[in-house]
Amino acid sequence: MTKRLASPRAASLATVAREAGVSVATVSRIVNGKTGRASVQTIARVNAAVVELGYQPNHVGRALRRRESRVVAMLAPNLDNPAMAAIAVSTEAALRAAGYVMILCDTHDRADLQDEYLRAMRSQFVQGYVLVSAVKSAALSDALARGEAIVFVSRRNPDGGGAYVGIDNRGAGADAADHLLARGIEDLAVIYPAQGSSSTAERVDGFIERLVARGVPTERIAQASAPGLSHLQVGYDAARALVDGAGGTWPRGLLCVSDLMAYGAYRLATEQGVAIPSECLVVGIDANPLNAWIAPWLTSVHIPYRDFGAKVVEQLSSLWSGTVPDDCLLPHSLDS
């Protein structure tokens, strides 16, 4: 084979085929890793021609022709929330290790933005979607009806069914109840966002169901919620509604369905001169790594966000192979 310098732009499957003395189809199979039908000598000639000519496979062009890509879109709300950022970091790393590129979009928990991103990503021929804390929306329902590969994370599919990665949220709420009862606290309350979701509803239900099962009357379990998308503000406002509804008295034990809500409740307690945790033991859910630095007063249910990414990729792989996988529930623990 004559050694020469060639422009990578000039190299094509046809020029590689001529150089190696094989068909274009043979070159296409070999450069795409399908070498089973080729002899060792043929593979060596093709690979040598690829190097000599500087051939670069046009993955983008092939993806466009097949209406597919190595790109996965993640749609998540409120990326200033450390939990959302942790899920994004874990998933991006796992996808990158599997040979995919991730596009990250912040939906701000709005159905219209979620739809806008879903339609935009479809026009880019993304191969799959990771929806973190999805909300019900028209484009989502359409995507599900088309059978597109979608994995739901933290919050279940608002249309029901589908691939899911998260924790046992009812179990997390129940563990919080057990933790408070084990410390002899029976004056208990829970606060949560008024804009409900499957995850927050399951945490609240698990908390209340466990307390009732262990003999705490339902009427003695105080509840309060507040509107808004910022869990910091929701925690502050819901705690105020809770305390105002109790005539200014704080409960001895309080479950906040996220650590950010616990931060908001703590702000109100500080303003009112209530000592946390001696006067009110607060339990959150997330176990934000920042807790050790800024919230040593907080007990929190640990969610293994760093392990989410690998499970998301497994769920996507199942969907790409035509299988709807079972829910993937990762183990949680309560850090005290």
From TrEMBL:
SUPFAM superfamilies: lambda repressor-like DNA-binding domains, Periplasmic binding protein-like I. PANTHER family: HTH-TYPE TRANSCRIPTIONAL REPRESSOR PURR-RELATED, LACI-RELATED TRANSCRIPTIONAL REPRESSOR. This is Transcriptional regulator, LacI family. CDD domains: HTH_LacI (cd01392), PBP1_LacI_sugar_binding-like (cd06267). Keywords: DNA-binding, Repressor, Transcription, Transcription regulation. It comes from Bosea lathyri. It comes from the Bacteria. GO terms for molecular function: DNA-binding transcription factor activity; transcription cis-regulatory region binding. The keyword Transcription regulation applies. Residues 11-66 form the HTH lacI-type domain. Residues 12-46 form the HTH cro/C1-type domain.
